[in-house]
Amino acid sequence: MAIVFHPANKTFHLQANDTSYVMQIVRSGYLAHLYWGKKVRHYRESNPLQFFDRGFSPNPDPSDRTFSLDTLPQEYPAYGNTDFRTPAYQVQLENGSTISDLRYKTHRIYKGKPKLEGLPATYVENENEAETLEIILEDHVTGLHVTLFYTVYERWNVITRSVRFDNNGSERIKLLRALSMNVDFRDDHFDFLHLFGAHCRERYIERKPLFVGTQSVESRRGASSHQQNPFIALLRKNANEDEGIVYAFNFVYSGNFLAQVEVDQFHTTRVSMGINPFDFTWLLEPGESFQTPEVVMVYSDKGLNGMSQTFHQLYRTRLARGVYRERERPILINNWEATYFDFNEEKILHIAKTAAELGIELFVLDDGWFGKRDSDRSSLGDWFVNKQKLPNGLEGLAKSINQMGMQFGLWVEPEMVSVDSELYRKHPDWCIHVPNRPRSEGRNQLVLDYSRKEVCDYIIQVISDVLASAPISYVKWDMNRHMTEIGSAALPPERQRETAHRYILGLYRVMEEITSRFPHVLFESCSGGGGRFDPGMLYYMPQTWTSDNTDAVSRLKIQYGTSLVYPISAMGAHVSAVPNHQVHRMTSLEMRGHVAMSGNFGYELDLTKLSEEEKAIVKQQVAFYKDIRSLVQFGTFYRILSPFEGNETAWMFVSEDKSEAFVAYFRVLAEANAPLSFIRLKGLDPEKDYELIGSGEIYGGDELMYVGLNVPQRRGDFISVIWRLRAAR
User: Fold this and answer.
1) For residue range 397-440, what is the model confidence (pLDDT) as tens digits?
2) Closest residue by Cα to residue 368 from 399, 396, 347
3) What are φ and ψ of residue 219, in 5° steps?
4) For 264-296, b where at least 16 C-beta lie within 10 A, e where not — what string?
5) Out of 478, 551, 627, 689, which one is annotated catalytic?
6) Which of 71, 548, 674, 706 has CB atoms 3.0–4.6 Å from 529's, for a disulfide?
7) Which of 548, 551, 685, 702 is catalytic?
8) Does the predicted TM-score (pTM) go above 0.85?
9) Contact at 8 Å (CB) between 176 and 290?
10) Structure confidence by residue, pLDDT tens digits, 431-484
11) What is the DSSP letter of 302?
């Protein structure tokens, strides 16, 4: 069995593939953390907990000055009962006090993995893929029951965690803090790694040593955000891309989050993650429950590469859902950077005709097709076709594009409303706002109040009507501002701080309903590009627009950082015009193509303005990507050279059977009299010989990995080189 309880010493031993996780019930019901790391056959307490009398660490049992919760490594700690570190949860009772005391009550072990009601989560397709442990803790004074959920996957070094609060008492309880997991490590010999950024500069990598005190990343924006991603990792000091121990944590949630690491006075490390307690409370009436979102915890003893491959495989096959989970994604052309709001049907069909001639498979009509939308100042919420631009409607346009041999896709932004819109004039209270306060706008828009059922019902209906009105096979679902003046006209005063989380629950309900109604549609999530690139979104939509920044050089860091956690099949990547519209850089069409081919490939420029020579290159790129598409989207990804560490970047994709590989190398700036470059490949079969397609040269997999491959010398800035390898017969 993957989970075993040993009654003699009251230990739980969880085993997931090649990792063990061990807990113990100590003293009078406290749940202590003992071990997480490389798999052990049996845990026999070779390194038991040690207890000492520590000054200023009080004792819950006055007769034993060696025992304090302040020094006990715990699974789900509280505050106020002798532990002064950051708690995993906190409640407020009707008498105003915030003290609770959870003790072990019972547990249950079973095959499979339960669904989280109303929340995205990883899943199993067969109960034998995983086992789940539920541990129920009880506060006997209030009747509060807290259930800790642990699921271990047989195939991967993955443990998922979540928590449910049940108010089984007779009085109301207010949750002030309800994190999804906590792990207490016994030392602090770690580096802290996270992904930070900004709009058009998402998921940059930062690694720094832990220090005594608290280090954290978080979002208070109502979305997981461009600024911080809901992911952190602790790396042992010697850990690198391919070697060493990594503990990683990723929150399956799309709203406000907190990921926190605290190093205490004794150099022990507490890691916790969950809904951000900032501006959050949740009122539990007697008999009510609250379920926290899931945290995915990954252990790797093969460095960051081992961690990434675990996340990629899990998310690609047991988080993403629907027909496109395993299906190759189409090559698309999006008209946004080609036309912005200034288009008509004739212009769209002209671009589409050119795209079809070049072999592109999907045309995506972006912002500006609805209401009176000639700029970003109006019409969000008015989801009816602008007949001045599209006299034949979406149906006529889509059918014309279908006749060219292409699919048709559409941009929508259903979570927003323009002040200048029919919807806002009819329902001004349907937006997130606080009475008698100004309503700050972003991009001239407000956020619809998805905490309200009637708002969600309306959006489900109008967007369903749009998608049913034409042969639409792709939807880009955008969200272009974060929350301010957070409040809901539909909630009572004591529940106002539930608004942000209720919004996310409403969003998940809307997405679940619409994606279920239209299972044939490929949905791509977007929030000003990568402002909501998180596991919660991947549950509903199997890919995300990686960044609004389409510059090839910028994308090296953005896509490299994103790949740390998220699979390549989740990353939208487009070739755009030069000078680039975000950074005004000039890069070759060749390099732009090679960078974009390292994700879900597409174009975002006016194809009709290309020269015949450029069109020939695009046609060649499209044909080449169709040949490697399955390898890129579903192969095993390896990072070789980091753009965060130098002037060069390299990565590669290897098929599952190691018979095929695609390698890409990039150099940003030229250097006079520069050193010669070579790269050592990864992931090949050392016993196989590989042919370099195009050259006919054959090398052993061992030679390519251990000796390396020379990079051809090229002049100039912004250089890219690609290789294709196939196992020689």
Assistant:
1) 999 999 999 999 999 999 999 999 999 999 999 999 999 999 99
2) 347
3) -130, 135
4) beeebbbbbbbbbbeebbbbbeeeeebbbbbbb
5) 478
6) 548
7) 548
8) yes
9) no
10) 999 999 999 999 999 999 999 999 999 999 999 999 999 999 999 999 999 999
11) B
